[in-house]
DNA sequence: CGCATTTGACCTGCGC
DNA sequence: GCGCAGGTCAAATGCG
């Protein structure tokens, strides 16, 4: 199961709710015209409140489902990681094409200290490099800055024009924690200049700054540390593909089709998606407005 | 003045 | 060995 399918299922639930909430919306107008019928208005208000409570319960259930799903996905991911580490070790033990340069050094055993260091360092590098994910962010094509707001702080350390793509590729390092090994490459897509492709290498060894603020008691809903002129770019959805290298094509295919559900980006996207599907639903907003106004009127009449 | 960004130079791996 | 391309470094520059 991929995220889009269960996000869609959330959408379906939202639409199901909206179907049930159609009646209040239709009677909303009559509330204003036949305002004297207090009894029916109160009945409707009660029904709406009931409906709201039901929606809240449903929301809580969905949140529970989401949490359970995230947990099971995390468990699966750690299993996959263990498997991949095993296959990496096996690859290291067996002679491969990558070993060509090192095998060329075999006749120079006098440099054993340096080659030993390399052989120790290389698997570590490969493990770091194995944790590669890719994010596609839709931005304004006229926006020349290759900045992808993902909740982390990045320091640009280089830019290069590559052969396969006329638009420059920018290189970033995570600057929030000095010891964080994560790097990011950002380049516009060749096919669609509106789409920016961000490739992440490695894993953060710290919480995202936004989450750190949240845990430290900040009441802000979403805080991106890039300054006031840098809200979360929600001009389009960010799709994150975990491109973690894998020997098995089957596992790889499944893994690629499965975005990082436990990543803060996805979680934020889900929250935004759920919030927007609710707020964009005219039936829901109308019902909500009717319920609130109903309560206000009933409070006034008391 | 300090920090982030820019940009040319340099390093490294790979193919021929 | 040489050239190419991608990646990184570090001095220069800009900005708040």
TrEMBL record:
Pfam families: WRKY. Residues 103-113, 212-222, 235-246 have a biased composition (Polar residues). Its main location: nucleus. Residues 247-263 have a biased composition (Basic and acidic residues). It comes from the Eukaryota. It is found in: Nucleus. The keyword Transcription applies. InterPro entries: WRKY_dom (IPR003657), WRKY_dom_sf (IPR036576), WRKY_plant (IPR044810). Residues 143-209 form the WRKY domain. Coiled coil: none annotated. PROSITE patterns: WRKY. Keywords: DNA-binding, Nucleus, Transcription, Transcription regulation. Residues 88-122, 205-263 are annotated as: Disordered. The keyword Nucleotidyltransferase does not apply. PANTHER family: WRKY TRANSCRIPTION FACTOR 36-RELATED, WRKY TRANSCRIPTION FACTOR 40-RELATED. This is WRKY domain-containing protein. It comes from Hibiscus sabdariffa (roselle). The lineage of its organism: Eukaryota, Viridiplantae, Streptophyta, Embryophyta, Tracheophyta.
């Amino acid at each position: 199961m991929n995220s889009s399918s269960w996000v869609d299922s959330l959408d379906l639930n939202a639409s199901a709710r909206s179907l049930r909430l159609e009646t209040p919306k239709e009677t909303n107008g009559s509330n204003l015209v036949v305002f004297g019928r207090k009894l029916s208005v109160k009945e409707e208000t009660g029904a709406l409140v009931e409906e709201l409570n039901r929606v809240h319960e449903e929301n809580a259930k969905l949140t529970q489902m989401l949490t359970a799903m995230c947990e099971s996905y995390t468990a699966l991911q750690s299993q996959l990681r263990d498997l991949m580490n095993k296959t990496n070790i096996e690859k290291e033990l067996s002679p491969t094409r990558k070993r060509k340069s090192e095998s060329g050094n075999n006749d120079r055993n006098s440099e054993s200290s340096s080659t030993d260091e390399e052989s120790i360092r290389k698997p570590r590098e490969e493990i770091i490099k194995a944790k590669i994910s890719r994010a596609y962010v839709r931005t304004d094509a006229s926006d020349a800055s290759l900045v992808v707001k993902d909740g982390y702080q990045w320091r640009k350390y280089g830019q290069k024009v590559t052969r396969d793509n006329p638009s420059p590729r920018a290189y970033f390092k995570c600057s929030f924690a000095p010891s964080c090994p994560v790097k990011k490459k950002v380049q516009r897509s060749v096919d669609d200049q509106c789409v920016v492709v961000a490739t992440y290498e490695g894993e953060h060894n710290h919480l995202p700054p936004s989450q750190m603020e949240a845990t430290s008691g900040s009441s802000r809903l979403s805080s991106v540390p890039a300054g006031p002129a840098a809200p979360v770019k929600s001009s389009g959805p960010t799709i994150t593909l975990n491109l973690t290298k894998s020997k098995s094509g089957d596992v790889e295919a499944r893994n690629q089709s499965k975005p990082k559900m436990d990543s803060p980006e996805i979680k934020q996207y889900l929250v935004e998606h759920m919030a927007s599907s609710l707020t964009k639903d005219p039936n829901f907003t109308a019902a909500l407005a009717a319920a609130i106004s109903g309560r206000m009127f009933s409070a006034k009449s008391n």
